[in-house]
């Protein structure tokens, strides 16, 4: 294929602004998929993606389009993940294409993820075509939103496409804009050694790992032997093809093209987004620059509620990890919770997705411990420890100081909720960096500790703004602060799964709130239970759960055996979701609920 007839692009948008619907329309209007095979949100495949309306893995589709100039074009669309947890993968995969459609809901305007995603596209040197979607809605204000795009993002929106992805209005204009306004790929050398970028990969039960590639130089063919440069592994290519969006094999892929290869690779782990693929010998010497594997930033423990399910959990985690290189795990034993795993995730959504899948697809009930970030613990002897579990906190007397990761958070919110948002950020130890207006919405930028955000910040933000705020963040670095480990003791036994890192100034308040919550969450027992929060050996908050005196079944009438039996069964079922700590049963939900701050 001639390079001048190829256009590679992605679609960037805030969630729900219509990215998937537009992709569907582009596929449908070019007859890439026969009408009878068309189903909604063709590119969103995973169940959780569909349910939550988010795209987790990038997908891709090759579209044939005969343009108004009478020429046949190949349009390659890659659908990048739209969530902040996957920001690194987005920024890598954006480098595999030359342009972006910037989709903005004309009834909503620019949102936080619009900004984050479009900046990533600008960083990747994309040509950008603004597309104002949902013009069919009565509330649509395309002129105002076009102005906003110019003011806030600083790109020309005079020739924005006005469309309704839902009705199909304006889709032709978008296709023409892709051809006329986005650049063709830079010229590559077909005869040079293979140089291809690994854009994405996922596991397929029949074919092994499917690797999405962008060819820069050289050609990729079936039967070829290739090398993945980051880990120096060699593979025999057994399939080369494109997505329409089903897989279709082709003879070869050349410079400028996007497609896939399979090579009987067993684990997604062996394929790193952003890696360079070349020939096994006489390949290129220098890989594509800037490659670094995505690093987990949020850690938590996953334990089976029923300890007999540990092996099942191991199995489930092994299987999920095959398909997710950015998820890390190692076995962990907790005095309180028994055997489980300490897992690392790219962010909270990523954590939720994995946890949901274990519970749903593998039917294992889980106890999730408090999410933690990675702290840098500087010891007095000069050593630095990367600590991702508060349970591993060394003795304070040997510690010189601690550093925690910080983020830059951008929040867009209607004016009327601004006060609540500022208060929330302030409560989470935020430092305001900027406050400007984008139309009737305020845009605030805060420097916040990641630890204060990973837990329930997003939920709180949504609730104080009735869902009208949008939020995005990026990691900025580490900074020293006065941080301490707070332990929780139930009936004088420390419950390691409830220990957290807190700021010294907030410790008493947090400790008190936690003890109060636990008092409500833990059922009464036949004896009195002290609940305490402590720093080092010093108790900073305390509650006492009073004893339960009567036998629960005593309430039943003497002769009613069935009722008594039912009650006992109910208790037994309830027990299953509890874990025993010394003599105390703690319900599973206590581990998460106790940590929520409100
Ligand atoms: P994504 O999160 O950006 O992929 O957004 P979706 O494509 O899933 O769209 C979000 C919601 O907006 C869905 O309920 C769509 O049906 C709806 N939607 C998308 N495009 C339009 C449009 O042009 N007009 C209207 N009225 N609704 C639309
Ligand atoms: Mg979508």
Model description:
- It catalyses: GTP + H2O = GDP + phosphate + H(+).
- InterPro entries: EF-4 (IPR006297), EFG_III/V (IPR035647), EFG_V-like (IPR000640), EFTu-like_2 (IPR004161), G_TR_CS (IPR031157), LepA_C_sf (IPR038363), LepA_CTD (IPR013842), LepA_IV (IPR035654).
- Keywords: Cell membrane, Elongation factor, GTP-binding, Hydrolase, Membrane, Nucleotide-binding, Protein biosynthesis.
- It holds the Pfam family EFG_C.
- It is a single chain.
- This protein is α+β, with helices and mostly antiparallel strands and 598 residues long.
- The chain has 14 helices and 33 strands.
- The strands form seven sheets. Strands 11-10-16-7-8-15-12-13 form an eight-stranded antiparallel sheet, covered by helices on one side. Strands 2-3-1-4-5-6 form a six-stranded mixed sheet, sandwiched between helices. Strands 21, 22, 23, 24, 25 and 26 form a six-stranded antiparallel sheet that branches.
- The termini are far apart.
- It binds guanosine-5'-diphosphate (GDP) and magnesium ion.
- Magnesium ion binds next to helix 1.
Could you describe the largest sheet, including whether it forms a barrel?
A: 8 strands, antiparallel
Number of helices: 14
Which class best fits the helix and strand makeup? alpha+beta
Q: Biggest sheet: strands side by side, in what order?
A: 11-10-16-7-8-15-12-13
Helix content: 10-25%
Q: List each distinct ligand once.
A: guanosine-5'-diphosphate, magnesium ion
Task: Let me know the average pLDDT.
Answer: 87
Radius of gyration: 27 Å
- What is the straight-line distance between the termini? 59 Å
- Which of globular, elongated, flat, extended, rod-shaped describes the shape? globular
Q: What is the number of beta strands?
A: 33
Give the low-confidence spans.
45-58
Strand content: 25-35%
EC number: 3.6.5.n1
Protein name: Elongation factor 4
Subcellular location: Cell membrane
Family: Belongs to the TRAFAC class translation factor GTPase superfamily. Classic translation factor GTPase family. LepA subfamily.
